[in-house]
Specification:
Elements: H1 9-35, H2 37-48, E1 49-54, E2 61-62, E3 68-80, H3 86-95, H4 102-108, E4 112-118, H5 120-129, E5 134-143, H6 151-154, H7 166-170, H8 172-176, E6 180-185, E7 197-200, E8 208-209, H9 214-230, E9 235-242, E10 247-254, H10 270-273, E11 275-276, H11 283-292, E12 301-303, E13 308-311, E14 314-317, E15 324-326, H12 327-333, H13 336-357, H14 384-391, E16 398-399, H15 400-411, E17 415-416, E18 431-432, H16 436-452, E19 466-475, E20 481-494, E21 501-508, H17 517-536
Parallel strand pairs: 2-8
Antiparallel strand pairs: 1-6, 2-3, 3-4, 3-5, 6-7, 9-10, 9-21, 11-16, 12-15, 13-14, 17-18, 19-20, 20-21
Helix pairs in contact: 9-17, 11-13, 11-16, 12-16, 13-14
């Protein structure tokens, strides 16, 4: 049956259904537009915009005179984006003549590198052009001008700018700064089509000045590395303190590594991380404590005949039978028998209290990861032989920094300072360890070491110095001591007039032809002191 309009009822139903469906679709569109507007806007925006962090320039590590020990250099790469025009190409070519041909850029029809590593002048000129169809990407390169001379102290940062070793790691938060952000404008294919929009600027990392003097560091490392190589040694350390200012002027460790080399083999910071049995270098501390307590005087004599002493069934002997020695000569000749008797006279409590007052077995007040601070054998029922051994530097350990700081007490009229490594830190308060008179007495004994004792090779030409040699056997993994492995050291104060510097050196496992502190440590001290004092006199 047909209607008056010539349409069947089935056709009317179909048309009606189609109209209903069209209405429902239109209604749904309006519903989504109104109710899901924020979601759709953000979704659409995410297809066109994305945020990218701006890495801040890492702060530098500088010496006391602002010479860079670690610095970051910005590198700039120039890219063409889509819609890059020939007119813009001509403008850029006037600034950077060596860039890709315009034809090759257009053919790629995508973000294309035009030039790598613009210099800063080119970067500034291109920025002033304000071209939207180019982008300059900034990256950083970390550079260490002194290289291996100071690597174990400064450390290095990784490719992502994070400190991985040494002070770079310890100071990472301060050096890193605060990241910024920028917005990228992209097409549906996620290709950047316009210059990024700055949202938040990056804040540069803080630059930090060390108390290190780069020239003094150079001399210290030069002689340390030379002596270790010449004596076929395993390694060594050297540290230079300014007794007047309470600052560390140099800290060298060998073997070292080049932090600029991506294939670097990391080496530890020996002056701060190695604790070892110091041997005879410790004897002046025993003398100082005994004098300060009024138990002995410097010129008082002690009998060392017949050149050895037996304690608990074990023998302690001197290289010669020195007969009767003054306590000043006990230090100059480095008599094991003389200092053993002195240690027993002082007693275990006095001995340990004296060492601790000089800062031994205590963590140094220095900001560096995993500082060594050594130990002292203080077990109950300690034997006389162990007490005597403590008197000449066995059954205890200390780091190069601790021993250097201990010797600075003699230069600073009996006062101890916590030597600083950062210029920003206020000078530490000094505290008394021994009297000024005792410090002067010990310095007199230390001067005799250089003029008429075991440290004859420690005297630098043209300067008067004082100091003490040290030679100690290294321990074996299975216990006991290895009679063929030594640590040779020397601690000295220079020059005697101003007493400005304390220099400590140690050489780990020198060859057996020359292994004593007098043969290895003393001339190394003299070489370092000579160059540094000449430099300071300029």
């Amino acid at each position: 049956m047909k209607t008056n309009y010539g349409l069947s009822w089935r056709a009317l139903i179909i048309y009606f259904v189609l109209i209903l469906l069209l209405g429902a679709l239109i209604g749904r569109i309006f519903f989504i537009q109104i109710n899901d507007k924020e979601f759709l806007d953000s979704k659409g925006e995410s297809l066109l915009y994305s945020n990218r962090p701006i890495v801040p320039l890492r702060g530098g590590i500088l010496d006391r005179n602002d010479f860079p020990l670690a610095l970051s250099i910005n590198q700039y790469d120039l890219f063409a984006l889509r819609n890059f025009s020939h007119d813009e190409y001509i403008k850029l070519k006037k600034i950077v003549p060596i860039i890709k041909s315009f034809k090759s850029i257009i053919e790629l029809n995508k973000k294309t590198l035009l030039f790598s590593k613009l210099d800063f002048s080119q970067y500034e000129q291109i920025k002033q052009l304000r071209i939207d169809s180019i982008e300059i990407e900034t990256s950083q390169k970390r550079y260490y001008p002194l290289g291996e001379q100071i690597a174990p102290l400064v450390g290095f940062a990784g490719k992502e700018g994070k400190g991985l070793e040494g002070l770079e790691k310890a100071l990472d938060v301060s050096l890193s700064g605060v990241a910024g952000s920028e917005r990228l404008i992209q097409n549906a294919s996620r290709k950047v089509i316009k210059r990024p929009i700055l949202i938040t600027p990056a804040i540069k990392g803080e630059s930090i000045n060390l108390t290190i003097d780069s020239r003094i560091q150079f001399y210290t490392f030069k002689h340390l590395s030379r002596f270790i190589e010449a004596n076929n040694a395993k390694g060594g350390s050297a540290i230079v303190l300014d007794n007047h200012s309470g600052e560390i002027l140099a800290m060298a460790s060998y073997p070292s590594y080049n932090p600029n080399d991506p294939n670097r083999v990391i080496q530890r910071n020996r002056p701060l991380l190695d604790a070892f049995e110091p041997g005879s270098i410790i004897k002046p501390l025993v003398l100082a404590k005994a004098i300060d307590l009024g138990l002995i005087s410097l010129e008082e004599s002690i009998n060392t005949h017949p050149g050895f002493i037996s304690l608990n069934g074990e023998m302690i002997s001197d290289s010669s039978n020195y007969q009767t020695l003054s306590y000043k000569e006990v230090i100059a000749k480095s008599s094991q028998v003389g200092v053993s008797k002195l240690a027993l006279f002082l007693g275990i409590d006095g001995l340990i209290a004296g060492y601790k007052s000089f800062g031994l077995s205590k963590p140094p007040d220095l900001y560096f990861p995993n500082l060594a601070y050594g130990t002292i054998n203080a077990r109950p029922n300690i034997s006389d032989h162990e007490i005597a051994s403590l008197g000449f530097g066995y059954n205890m350990t200390a780091s190069s920094l601790q021993l250097a700081q201990a010797y600075s007490v003699f230069a600073n009229k009996g006062y101890m300072k916590d030597f600083k490594l950062f210029m920003s830190i206020e000078d530490s308060e000094k505290h008394p360890v021994i009297s000024s008179e005792t410090a002067s007495d010990v310095l007199e004994a230390l001067e005799l070491v250089v003029t008429d004792g075991t440290g004859l090779l420690a005297k630098p030409s043209g300067y008067l110095v004082a100091g003490k040699t040290g030679t100690s056997h290294k321990t074996r993994l299975k216990g006991g001591y290895d009679k063929s492995k030594y640590i040779s050291s020397f601690a000295g104060i220079a020059p005697l007039g101003s007493k400005r510097l304390t220099i400590f050196v140690s050489v780990d496992e020198p060859g057996l032809n020359n292994y004593s502190g007098g043969a290895v440590g003393a001339p190394l001290f003299a070489a370092i002191a000579k160059d540094i004092l000449s430099y300071l006199d300029e």
